[in-house]
Amino acid sequence: SSGINAEYGVAGKSCNYAKNWILGENSTEIIKTGEGLTTEGVPSRLSKNSLFKKFNEVCSAVTHSMPYLTQFYSAAKADAESYQLRKKRVFEGLAEAGYGRWVGKPIEQDMFILS
Fold first, then answer.
1. Reduced 3-state DSSP string for the chain
2. Cβ proximity of 97 and 89 under 8 Å
3. Where residue 95 falls among pLDDT bands split at 50, 70, 90?
4. Which residues pair with 32 in a beta bridge?
């Protein structure tokens, strides 16, 4: 066996592209997984940047003010007290249940400015 499935690609290797869609919309989005950008070269609607932008738009529409005084995703995330508290509880729960420690991602991944 060559380890290749014609339908799924090479075993153990991730795909080069991903596709997402939203129910009720007539469009799909194809993402180059190695770059995190769409095939048009723009950030995905599912990227942290896009979701952070939408979060700020919704908060601004509801409260008529920005929820955070920063455009930095990492700073806004650090300032989200209820999120940080719940994240800490999840990590503690995993450790107490014997599942080990949560493996964090590089901090650079969250260091971007809202565009």
1. CCCEECCCEECCCCCCEEEEECCCCCCEEEEECCCCEECCCCECCCCHHHHHHHHHHHHHHHHCCCCCCCCEHHHHHHHCHHHHHHHHHHHHHHHHCCCCCCCCCCHHHHCCECC
2. no
3. very high
4. 17, 37
Interval 55-71: pLDDT, tens: 888 888 887 776 666 77
Distances (CA, A) of 97 to 84, 88, 89: 20, 14, 12
Residue 92 pLDDT exceeds 90: yes
Q: Per-residue pLDDT averaged across 27-37, rounded? A: 86
From CA 36, how far away is CA 30, in angstroms rounded?
10
Residue 19 CA to residue 38 CA, distance in Å, equals: 9
As a whole number of angstroms, the distance between CA 45 and CA 3 comes to 33
Q: Which residues of 75-95 are buried (b: 16+ CB within 10 A; e: fewer)?
A: ebbeeeeeeeeeeeeeeeeee
Mean pLDDT in residue range 12-39 = 85
